[in-house]
Design brief:
alpha+beta; 2 domains; 7-stranded mixed β-sheet; 6 helices; elongated
């Protein structure tokens, strides 16, 4: 039913073309039956578009979560970002998982310290399981801006092949939140963890402070200078 609930373009467009053809036939033959058929075709096309407007699928809800998360990050809306993450969200890469509390604190600090000139999500592919109530989204991010940390300001431009994968879970009816953050394709020399983060050690117990390090020229997502 995706042709109806998510992308009714072909169905509605086909009905519209049929309606146009019936109008042409009406003009050529002057037979009233073609007027009736044209009216029915146009009415069905409008109905298809209307159904798509009110019928929101799980896939579309997952997509909106991703787009909403991107908007919150771009506007440095820390509460908005954290609200779209589950309490047990984890940063996972190459078999390594960051503790949930540390992941949330890291995300909070990076959103607060980053200033985006632009941020765009492209090539988004989303899916949701009807039985498991879990979803997945994979997409590319194109962005540029600056990172303002305790060690100075770093300008950065992310390449257009930076790809991320998110795991999502339906936390309440119709509400999907991110419970996994995974880098898929990152720039050359990308570390397993994001720039400025040192792998948690014994001192990074839940509730303890995240262990951050200054960003440097060799860190990922950067093509600027420290100032």
């Amino acid at each position: 039913m995706e042709f109806l609930s998510e992308d009714p373009t072909y169905l509605a467009g086909g009905l519209g073309l049929h309606g146009g053809a019936f109008l042409i036939a009406l003009k050529l033959t002057q037979q009233g039956k073609y007027l009736i058929r044209a009216a029915v075709a146009f009415a069905l096309a409008l109905m298809v578009v209307g159904v798509e407007r009110v019928w929101v699928t799980d896939n579309e809800r997952v997509e909106e979560t991703v787009y909403g998360l991107a908007r919150a990050v771009a506007s440095r809306d820390v509460p908005g970002v954290l609200d779209r993450l589950t309490p047990d969200v984890q940063y996972v890469a190459r078999g390594n998982s960051m503790p949930s509390a540390t992941t949330r604190r890291m995300v909070e600090q990076y959103v607060r310290d980053a200033q985006f000139d632009y941020l765009q999500v492209t090539h988004l592919r989303a899916s949701a399981g009807g039985q498991s109530r879990r979803g997945r989204a994979e997409f590319r991010v194109v962005c540029g801006g600056s990172f303002h940390g305790a060690y100075g300001t770093l300008n950065f431009v992310a390449p257009n092949n930076m790809t991320w994968s998110l795991g999502l879970r339906e936390t309440s009816p119709g509400v999907w939140k991110v419970n996994r953050i995974t880098p898929v394709t990152l720039p050359a020399h990308q570390n397993i963890l994001p720039a400025g983060f040192v792998r948690p050690g014994p001192e990074d117990r839940p509730g303890g402070p995240p262990h951050f390090a200054p960003p440097t020229q060799s860190q990922p997502l950067t093509s600027g200078r420290m100032s």
